[in-house]
């Protein structure tokens, strides 16, 4: 009976040793990454140079105006003007928190101005090169699953961007995509279209909104702490006038909080 016991012992020992080694190796890699980040490896080593306002503005547009255009594409109809303006106003405030001065905020004058700003900025910064193609394809591959593999995701992106931009990003041609991948994409489009239309119905709209709120709240309550927290979080006290313009009453409420703390 001893040989089986000894075999089991050695198997358990090597399994434990292997996992401990993996954990130690992972910790060493994380320490190296943190040191490289602190030292500025892969950059000019100067973390005090801020990202310019235009780059921050176009990133803000990607998460605001671009999303409204995407909703219109998937839903087949526009949101109401009140919903659109409310959504853009929220992102205008987020832009303020990220450090975009309100005079440079592309969302400060509503939807038409935001769309014009998006088109204007993209005209002179959107020039895909080899690195753009690599980045795009790597992201699609990293997101690939058995249900939605790389070629299916590439076809979705090609449908959204069009053939001209997709070719410049060197995405797979439609002729190179299998029938199975095309069927996956068709089912995906059908499901997204059905879901977006269902979310516009009076009763289902409230149910879906509550589901989304619950899911977001659950995620925020359980998500891990950021590995690299912001080095320069926005200080509200420096922008009280702008804050009051972006979100009326906000600066006053913050001043009241500061007075209470002093007392």
Sequence-ordered SSE layout with sheet pairings:
Blueprint (H helix, E strand, L loop, with lengths): L1 H38 L13 H11 L1 H11 L5 H18 L12 H15 L4 H14 L6 H12 L1 H6 L10 H20 L3 H21 L17 H7 L3 H13 L1
Task: Explain what you see.
This protein has helices at about 1-40, 55-65, 65-75, 80-100, 110-125, 130-145, 150-160, 165-170, 180-200, 200-220, 240-245, 250-260. Residues about 235-255 have low confidence and may be disordered. The protein contains twelve helices and no strands. The chain is an all-alpha fold and about 260 residues long. It is globular, with a radius of gyration of 25 Å.
What are the main properties of this structure?
globular; 263 residues; mainly alpha; 71% helix
Percent range for helical residues? over 70%
Q: Measured on Cα atoms, how large is the radius of gyration?
A: 25 Å
User: What is the global morphology?
Assistant: globular
Number of distinct beta strands? 0
The helix-and-strand class reads: mainly alpha
**Share in β-strands:** under 5%
Q: Can you tell me the residue ranges where pLDDT is under 50 for at least 5 consecutive residues?
A: 236-254
Summarize model confidence as the mean pLDDT: 75
Alpha plus pi helix count: 12
How would a crystallographer describe the biggest sheet?
Answer: none
Order of helices and strands, N to C?
HHHHHHHHHHHH
């Amino acid at each position: 009976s001893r040989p089986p016991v000894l075999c089991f012992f050695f198997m358990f020992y090597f399994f434990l040793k292997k996992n401990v080694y993996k954990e130690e190796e992972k910790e060493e890699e994380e320490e190296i990454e943190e040191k490289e980040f602190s030292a500025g490896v892969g950059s000019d080593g100067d973390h005090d140079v801020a990202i310019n306002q235009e780059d921050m503005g176009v990133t803000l547009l990607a998460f605001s105006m671009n999303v409204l255009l995407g909703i219109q594409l998937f839903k087949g109809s526009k949101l109401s003007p009140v919903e659109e303006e409310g959504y853009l106003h929220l992102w205008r405030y987020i832009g303020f928190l990220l450090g975009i001065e309100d005079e440079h905020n592309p969302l400060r004058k509503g939807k038409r101005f935001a769309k014009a700003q998006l088109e204007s900025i993209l005209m002179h910064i959107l020039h895909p090169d080899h690195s753009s193609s690599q980045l795009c394809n790597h992201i699609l591959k990293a997101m690939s699953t058995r249900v939605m593999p790389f070629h299916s995701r590439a076809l979705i992106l090609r449908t959204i961007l069009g053939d001209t931009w997709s070719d410049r990003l060197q995405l797979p041609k439609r002729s190179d995509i299998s029938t199975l991948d095309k069927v996956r994409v068709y089912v995906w489009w059908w499901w997204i279209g059905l879901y977006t239309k269902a979310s516009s119905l009076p009763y289902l709209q409230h149910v879906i909104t509550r589901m989304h709120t619950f899911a977001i709240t659950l995620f925020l309550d359980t998500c891990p702490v950021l590995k690299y927290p912001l080095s320069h979080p926005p200080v509200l006290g420096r922008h009280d006038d702008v804050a009051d313009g972006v979100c009326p009453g906000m600066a006053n409420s913050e001043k009241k909080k500061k007075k209470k703390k002093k007392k």
